[in-house]
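Here is one chain, start to finish.
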Amino acid sequence: MTIRTEEADLSAFTLPSEFNHLKYHIKTLSYLTRAFTAGTLSHALLFTGLQGVGKQSAAQMLSMVCNCLERSVPDDSEQSGDDESSIWPCGRCRSCHKILNKSHPDILLIRPTGSFIKIDQVRSLIQKLSLKPYEAANRFVIIADADTMNPEAGNALLKVLEEPPDRTTIILTAGQVSDLLPTIISRCMHIRLSPIPEDFIARFLKEDYAATPDEAGILARMASGSISRAVFMKTNHWLDRRNHLIQELVNLRQRSVGFIMAFAERLSQDKERLTECLEIFRIWLRDLLIYRYAPDQIVYADLEDTIRNEYRKSDSETLLSLVDLIHTVQKKIESNGNVRLSTEILMMKMAGQ
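Its structure:
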């Protein structure tokens, strides 16, 4: 069974601040909470969606609400209504505090060690699940990035899904269904968490991170539906770095070959940072291309004056060839190829050399 999220009425609920962004997934959380109250919640859930849409937070929230000691449980007549106030945990009771502090003995989190979730981790989990829950009304196992399980770990987990322990719910999170074993998918209830809209992310950044309207707008556009990406960019001064890089690009035509080569070398020294820079460059080129046809569709709307001054300096064919070069560098990063040489070629071409 698959449930897709949709935006609901975003009324003001009292929540721990780290869960505020889950208001967008209120319909899904409401459904799952009511299923738990009615005793019909599946023993295995699969949360999928883009990185940063709130999969692990939603799993933690569900574990909280199902074990909250002070949550008001609606009667049968309220179960079918639209009142969402009963689906949130109090955030104050002993159980909620332990889950928030990640110290609850019956809320188990499994995540990759290195690049994979290994069979030893699943075997350790199986041993813990052979015992009854210590204090929770319902024990929860959250397996984050379940798509990183190696085949042995996946097959071991399958046995648990086939014979689930009492009072235990297992939640797997993954980017997409196709990354998991079909036998695991078939034993889980699938919950697809949709990308979060730009206006919601922008409002979240303004309310929770004191972002200015212009700053919130550009970060929301760049976040691609991911709350965590938007927060990361806000808290790591992404806009300052972008502005610096764009200014360097604008000035590159006036720079010496030695400066351009040194600039390329600095970029290529950190592959993770280079990946971020390449995405900034790609969107810059995209905006230069599209500005002549649809100026209201540019991503870097706060740089419109600069884009207006620059877009005529290169024709569409040249801009498209630069985008192709960016893709070449990105492939070199993925394949551990000669990133420095590819970056030098890209920077020389962007400088008009």
